[in-house]
Every structure is written in C-alpha cells, then in structure tokens.
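From the methods appendix. Each design record in this collection lists the tokenized structure first, followed by the designed amino acid sequence. Records were kept in a plain field format so they could be parsed without special tools. The example shown here is representative of the layout used throughout.

RECORD:
FOLD TOKENS (310 positions):
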C-alpha cells in the first residue's frame, strides 16, 4: 500500500465496519489499509506482541490508524487479546459502539513457536493453539451473537468472516507441527461454520497466503527476500485485494479456502473421498496390506509437506 493511497468513499467496502485482528504489521496491516482505501471503517486490533507472542505495544496499531486517517479514512485502535473471551467481546462491542455496526471480521492474528516435534514443549504447543484457534473462535463467536440477534429481529444481515490458514495447514510444514495443526484446524472450522451460519446471512471463507511477514522472513528467507527491481511477489499487499473482496457484499461464495501468492490465485481442494475397496464383509488383518497398496496406487499423490525430503 503506497503512501499516496486515497480513500475511495464509493469503494467496494464503502461504509462497512471491518475488524482486522493482528493488524499492526505485515498482512494484517496491509489488509486494514486496503479495506480503508475501499471505504471501510476499520478497527485495527493488535496487542503489539513479539513474534513469539510476548509483550504489549500499542505503537504498531496506532501507526496503522494514523495512516488510515491520513488517507481520509476512519479507524480506531483495539489492543484486546483475541484469545481472551472477554477481550474478544470488548473488541466486537467497541466496533459496534463506535461505528454503529459490524459487517466484516478478518481473523489474521497469529504467532509461531517453531520446533521439531521431538523438541517441542507443551507450552510451545499450547501458545500457538491459543492464539490461532482460540484467537479465531472467540471473536467469531461474539460477532455471530451480534449478527444472529439482528437476523432473528428481522434485520437483514450481509456479514463476512475471513479466516487465515496457511499452506502449512493445508499440506504441513516441517518444524511447524503446532502451527500446521492450528492452521489445519482453522481450515476445518471455516468450512463447518460456513454451512452453519449461511442461514443468518453470514459468509465464511479462508485464505492460505504466501507473503512476507515476521513469520515467513526467518523461516523462508530466500523465498521472501524483496527483489531489487520488478514485481515484488511476496509483498503482503498482494494478498489484501482478495481479503477485501471476501469481506465485501460482492462476495457471493462461502466455505472455500483460497491460496494466493503474488499474482497467483487458486481455490484449494481439500480432503476428498478416495478410491474404495469394498469386500462386503470384515477384512482379516493379513488382507489389509495388499488392499491399501492398491488404493494408494490408484489415488493421486498428496501434495508434499513443505520442507520434506524430496
């Protein structure tokens, strides 16, 4: 997002109230600025923690708010912990009290505690699960309460939730067992909630982005390096147009997971039922091996785990 960006009051998200969690840096910052440029009123949520989830600093979120206001937009800071049930509720209420409603929730906040599984501690496991999974569920649950009450009162609802998974969650990533498991959980939550919430006028989709961030700069340094010239494919702002569209009334799909990297956009195809061998009776253990080998041969090869030996 360039410094010369000016808010379009008639943009695709004109007057929509949008919360972006983890919006102080990286992808979240790019999303917040992109929503504002398209006319949205933005709640910039960020506790200002370190990459590992420690500390508290309002500075990054406040800077994003100032950038939005400089382009003629409206934005406020929220520093509630999205994984805290009461804090997530305050965040949703702040959006409604300040701007009169809530239309879109983008769940972007996350941390990493990378470690090979044999060396991973239970604290490193729990910390990642808390921020990614609980930190998604708590805001979504509170937002649903607001939208569901409107729907039951007869008020039309045209709400959107955008979750953030990862290629690690869809395919796995070596040394990121906790992160991969959390992101896989987000993908599953996305498709389930899309089915459950459609009746209330709520569409839910997810993204699996590849872009430069504090999380990826260290893990994939060569891949994420900014080029000296030409298209910067790993610029996080490349992901934001998709997120803005998914958060707008123009979005007419639900329950899908989108992969995006630079200018490449695709719809991810998740677990599907594979080939079936039906004996019509109970198998004996000694029979299983040959059947499994045949089914594996007949089915497509799974996408490789990131970082696995080729």
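DESIGN:
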């Amino acid at each position: 997002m360039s410094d010369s960006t000016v808010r379009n009051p008639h943009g695709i998200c004109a007057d929509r109230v949008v919360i972006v969690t983890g919006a102080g840096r990286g992808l979240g910052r790019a999303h917040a600025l992109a929503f504002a440029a398209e006319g949205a009123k933005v709640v910039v949520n960020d506790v200002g923690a370190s990459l590992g989830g420690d500390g508290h600093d309002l500075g990054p979120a406040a800077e994003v708010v100032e950038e939005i206001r400089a382009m003629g937009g409206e934005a406020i800071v929220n520093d509630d912990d999205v994984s805290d049930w009461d804090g997530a509720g305050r965040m949703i209420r702040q959006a409604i009290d300040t701007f009169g409603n809530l239309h879109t929730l983008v769940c972007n906040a996350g941390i990493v505690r990378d470690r090979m599984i044999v060396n991973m501690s239970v604290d490193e496991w729990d910390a990642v699960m808390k921020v990614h999974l609980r930190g998604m569920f708590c805001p979504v649950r509170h937002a649903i309460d607001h939208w569901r009450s409107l729907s039951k009162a007869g008020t039309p609802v045209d709400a959107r939730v955008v979750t953030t998974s990862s290629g690690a969650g869809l395919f796995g990533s070596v040394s990121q067992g906790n992160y991969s498991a959390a992101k896989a959980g987000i993908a599953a939550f996305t498709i389930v909630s899309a089915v459950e919430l459609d009746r209330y006028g709520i569409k839910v989709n997810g993204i699996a982005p590849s872009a430069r961030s504090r999380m990826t700069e260290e893990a994939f340094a060569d891949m994420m390096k900014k080029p000296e010239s030409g298209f910067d494919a790993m610029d996080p702002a490349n992901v934001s147009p998709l997120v803005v569209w998914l958060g707008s009334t123009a979005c007419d799909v639900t329950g899908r997971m989108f992969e995006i990297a630079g200018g490449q956009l695709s719809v991810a195809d998740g677990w599907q039922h594979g080939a079936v061998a039906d004996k019509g009776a109970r198998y004996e253990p000694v029979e299983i091996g040959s059947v499994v080998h045949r089914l594996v041969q007949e089915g497509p090869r799974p996408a490789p785990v990131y970082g696995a030996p080729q």
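APPENDIX NOTE: The chain has a mean pLDDT of 93.
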